[in-house]
Hints:
Residues 17-337 form the Aminotransferase class I/classII large domain. This protein has two domains: 10-29 and 248-339, Aspartate Aminotransferase, domain 1 (Alpha-Beta Complex); 32-245, Aspartate Aminotransferase, domain 2 (3-Layer(aba) Sandwich), CATH 3.40.640. It contains eleven helices and 13 strands. By secondary structure, it is an alpha/beta fold. 34% of the residues lie in helices and 17% in strands. The longest helix has 23 residues, at 247-269. It has helices at 9-12, 32-40, 54-64, 77-85, 100-107, 152-164, 220-224, 234-244, 247-269, 292-301, 327-341; strands at residues 19-20, 71-74, 90-95, 111-116, 135-140, 168-172, 195-200, 213-216, 274-276, 283-288, 304-305, 307-308, 319-323. The radius of gyration is 20 Å and the shape is globular. Helix 6 (152-164) links the parallel strand 5 (135-140) and strand 6 (168-172). It has a seven-stranded mixed sheet with strand order 2-8-7-6-5-3-4, with helices on both faces. It has a four-stranded antiparallel sheet with strand order 9-10-13-12, with helices on one face.
Amino acid sequence: MNKGHGANIFKYSKSGDLLDFSSNINPYGPTERVKKNIREHLDLIARYPDVSYGKLFDVLEKYLGVDKTHISLGNGAMEVIDATISLYENIVIFEPAFMEYEIRARVQKKNIKKINLDSSFKPNVHDLDFDLENTLVIITSPHNPSGVSLSKKEFDEIYEKVSNNGGAILMDEAFHEFSSVDYDLAKEISKYKNLFVVRAATKFFSLPGLRLGYLVSNFKNDIDNHIPTWSVSSLVENLGEDLLLDEEFIISSKAKLAKSRDKLFLELKKIDGIHPLPSDANYILIKTDFDNEMLFQNLLKKGILVRKCDNYANLGHQYIRVAVKKDEDNEKLLKALKEEKNGR
């Protein structure tokens, strides 16, 4: 299968000087506080991390609001997702979806069932009317690539269906910090025996180059048995409070990006041939009236990289996804799209 992702900027520019709307990273990070921590502790790269990750677990306990006995660490979200997949024989994937779910399930020779999402991009509980014994159902909220979030009621209906029929849910919340949902499944993990909640520092904390993923579940020992020793680096282990407990950064960047997203969405709607979908994340899925390859190449000539979505199941050649960046960069994208509409 096509393993294309966003953020492949060096494929299109050796210098990496493109304005990258293909990668959904918080443009306000990493903070100076994080950079200062890294600069002052570069000598840690010559040391193994603490095998128990005690300090990092203490910080995650505060940040997530859940006891550390429910938290597992990984070298990015995919490592804990991979470990969770390993616990089940059958994997259910709602499409379109992040393609690594299927890739990891195939590598582990799991039985895969794919279910197509309708235009709401929300799983339909009635699509799960089958035996779910020893089955992991993967859900994403906010959904990638649409940016749609599930309400608590919608999630609870799906969870009840899956759990009562012998299955479990992996809830990928890689973009949770950007969303406006009024519930927090990680904090409520004791109520959901058959739930795995995945988050990471990659997107919101702007740390894709230093991997840190974390999973909240009632199966910590089972997950940890599938995670290699020293999975998280010494540099990341030491970031702790400077990374995850900077409340000023968390509150301010979330508010600024939500405002920028809503503004970008409204401006995109004004452009003929551009049809953005409402989003609860830091990206917007757009259906266009023209082939995305032509649009992609024309924007590339203007120094702008967007995410083609033709390798997402069920989307096809009319969709692109764009990250929400700072207003001045969003204006450059809007200007380029308007020029495309006018044939320039």
